[in-house]
Every structure is written in C-alpha cells, then in structure tokens.
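S.,

Sequence below, as promised.
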Amino acid sequence: MPIIMSLSKRLAIIIGDHATVEEARNIDRMAAVIALKMNEYGVIVTSVLLASILGNVFETILAMMLFAVFRKYSGGFHFNNIDVCFLVTTALFVIPPMIKLPVDVLTALNLISLIVVTGKIRGKMSNKIVCLVIVGAGFMLQSSAVSITIVAACILLLRGGEAVERTTSEYPRPLS
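The prediction came back faster than expected:
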C-alpha cells in the first residue's frame, strides 16, 4: 500500500474513533480524501522547501500556480499511485527552475503547448481560453520553469483525461 494511503487510512481510523456512527461508517472515503489533501499540501510544502534551499522560490511557486490552474481547466493524465504522483509533481515544480533554456527553445516549447491546447481541449470555450492565456504567459515571461511546466502539463493532457466539473454533492461531506 502506498505510503500516503497508509498514513491517511490510519488518520481516518483515528478520526473515525471519535466520530458519530454515521461518519465512522465511511472510513475508506475519509481515507481517500485525507490522502488527496496530504498529497496536495505535501507537494506544495516540499516544493517550496526544496526551492528555498535551491534559491528559486518565486519561479517554483509561479510554475506551481500556473500548472494547477492549467490542470483544473484542461484535465489530463493521473497516476494510479499517489506516491508516484507526489514524487513526479514535486520534481516537476522543483527541477524546471534550475534549467535555463535559450529563447528559441522556450519559443518552441510554447508553440508545442499552443498546438496541444488548441487541438486537444474540448468542451467549454472558457476552459480553452484559460489554458491559452496560460500558454500566452509562457510566451510573455520567457521563463524556462513556466514553459517546461506548461509543456509537461500538455504532455499529461495528451496521455488522457479531461477536465471534470464536480457538483458539491460529489465531494465528501466534511466531519463537523
């Protein structure tokens, strides 16, 4: 069992011991939600911590924010193992700011992203517009971290998955 899932299951059991009977019935669902939150916050904290050590916090945070917004509106491939997701995502935010690419390579990466976004994103026009604005930011900023992160998001978009709009009823009910 992946490390994050194992820890979240333990936390869910501890929380379940102090919950009402109805809330405690769904330990697996609670564990899944805890695992997702541990993954999200873990990636953020680990990436910022490593970026602080490496001296590139601003670019790491910028790439992280653009990636998160891009993925929200584009969708894309998700790893089956949450630990692999944690490691790959953290590496995706920490490594690109250390790479300095020439302007012509950045332009090529941004053009690849533009082609993928215009050809792959279906559905609501607003989703495509948001993603195109992010790709445009890659052209304007001429940042290796931004361009590499966006092209990586586009590669994950090519691998599969689409943006999913959820209603509040699909999210687990929080414990009170």
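DSSP finds eight helices and no strands in the chain.

Coffee later?
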